[in-house]
Write a structure and sequence with these properties.
about 325 residues; Rossmann fold; 6-stranded parallel sheet; 18 strands; about 25% strand; binds NADP nicotinamide-adenine-dinucleotide phosphate; Zinc-binding dehydrogenase
Length: about 325
């Protein structure tokens, strides 16, 4: 079968022929129709991720059809599925255990004609979505769902700020928050992406490259009850200033750097919480999928590349040119 293989530090993205795995007890083989990229895959190809292992087939997100099943997986035969890439979460809903892992490192991932997974991580593909839209869902959507609902306790009428809305996670955060009845504001490094966010229901947006982005946001929105910022970097220092009393700031990454030195006073005086989060539980995946189906949410697919052009897809992500998810069409 053909696969996108992380071959070595020098050759991190190679499309090559590898042997097709076969399912053992509790496992199934999914014939992948489409696989989506996440920033995680990009970090791995850059050598900037813990536990890198060569060779590994990349990819956490995929949609496809179950073509072979080991003992206990027969009920899934022939079914159209998506895969929860959040594996071995563990016993505490609040945090993942020490055996937690994400599909696509260390286990072989979805950027291949077939992937081997435990049947417990299969979910029915939403029927209103095509293969590429369905493949866009799992990792980013699960992370966005936990960030907004479990961590920030989003409720109708909240004012929400999403920093860097062009991200794969950013478009899901926007869609979730709008569907839940929040008033959503966004930032982006591109005016075109700000316009596209407005088409998806954002009230307004500002370019984070402008000197006065924080004042402009305050002028537009007053203040925010929830901020999701997984860019971080130096600009994060201004975030507490645009928060309302009792605000929750949630983050799950740091695309633009680390948390800088920040003024502590607004944090304690406004009783602001800064909350870290990562991926989510099986229950959250189920709830997220129910939300997709209930609200007929269609993920934002930026561009679809053939498997053979995986390298170009990764380059686009590296340049942050996308709005939403970059997807590989596999079969
Ligand atoms: N812990 C977890 O479970 C988890 C899960 C998912 C993602 N993550 C992390 O979360 C981050 C986003 O992931 P992703 O896959 O959605 O990434 P992505 O699709 O590659 O998007 C990255 C986006 O970051 C924004 N950005 C870059 N520099 C910025 C800056 N200086 N200020 C504000 N925004 C900036 C850009 O938004 P514009 O294009 O709008 O300018 C860009 O599109 C990554 O760091 C990733 O590793 C973590």
């Amino acid at each position: 079968m053909k696969a996108v293989v992380l071959e070595s530090a020098e050759n991190p993205i190679i499309v090559k022929e590898v042997s097709k795995p076969s399912p053992g007890a509790g496992e199934v083989l999914v014939q992948i129709k489409a696989a989506a990229l996440n920033r995680r895959d990009f970090w791995i190809t850059q050598g900037k991720y813990a536990g890198i292992k060569y060779p590994t087939i990349l990819g956490a997100d995929g949609s496809g059809i179950v073509t072979e099943a080991g003992e206990g997986g027969a009920d899934w035969m022939g079914k159209e599925v998506i895969i929860n890439p959040s594996h071995n979460w563990g016993e505490h809903a609040e945090f993942q255990g020490k055996d937690f892992k994400i599909l696509g490192l260390p286990d072989d991932g979805t950027m291949a004609e077939y992937v081997l997974v435990k049947a417990e991580y299969l979910y029915p593909k939403p029927t209103h979505l095509d293969w590429e839209q369905a493949a866009a869902i799992p990792l980013a959507s699960l992370t966005a769902y936990r960030a907004l609902f479990t961590k920030a306790h989003l409720k109708k009428g909240d004012k929400v700020l999403i920093v860097g809305v062009g991200a794969g996670t950013g478009t899901f955060l926007l869609q979730w928050a709008v569907a839940a009845g929040a008033q959503v504001f966004v930032t982006s490094g591109s005016g075109d992406k700000l316009d596209r966010a407005k088409q998806l229901g954002a009230s307004a947006g500002v370019n984070y490259k402008a000197q006065d982005w924080a004042q402009e946001l305050k002028h537009l929105a007053g203040g925010f009850d929830i901020v999701v910022d997984s860019a971080l970097g130096p600009d994060f220092a201004k975030i507490p200033d645009v928060c309302n009393p009792g605000a929750r700031i949630v983050f799950f990454g740091g695309t633009a750097g680390n948390i800088p030195e920040i003024n502590a006073r607004p944090l304690f005086w406004k009783q602001i919480q800064i909350l870290g989060t990562t991926m989510g539980t099986q229950e959250e995946f189920k709830a997220m999928l129910a939300f997709v189906n209930e609200h007929n949410i269609v993920p934002v697919v930026d561009e679809i590349y053939p498997l053979a052009d995986a390298k170009a897809a990764f380059e686009k992500m590296g340049a942050s040119k996308q709005f939403g998810k970059i997807v590989l069409k596999i079969s």
